[in-house]
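I hope you will forgive my troubling you with a question about protein structure. I should value your view on which stretches of the chain appear to form regular backbone elements. Here, with my thanks, is the record as I have it:
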Amino acid sequence: MGYAKYKKTSVESASREKLLLMLYEGAIKFTKRAIIAAENKDIATRGENITKAYDIILELMNTLDFKVGGEVAENLEQLYMFITDELTRANITGKTEHLNNVLKILQTLYDGWKEAVEILKKKEVKGA
């Protein structure tokens, strides 16, 4: 009970940048769990985790701002669409190669955003 309340509070009080990183962390976690489940031939657990990762990617896609983000937002949309296709393929076939593709992309995006957030924080500190 206490952990759930803490988690809810941490999400509600997080900055937009922190929320973005938390979404990526969740998608990475669920993709890793889906890989393990696929390797263990645990179809139900594989499907549950793929669905959770898929939902997060849809949320990321829904938050894209094409007016502000322009080409970057368009490129992210294409990546997110590829990821959802790969997740669907993994769910249908049970093959981990699709999940590994997703994991590589998510990890690369996460690392890039994390670095961008750190640079932004440093600029805010200097500007303050």
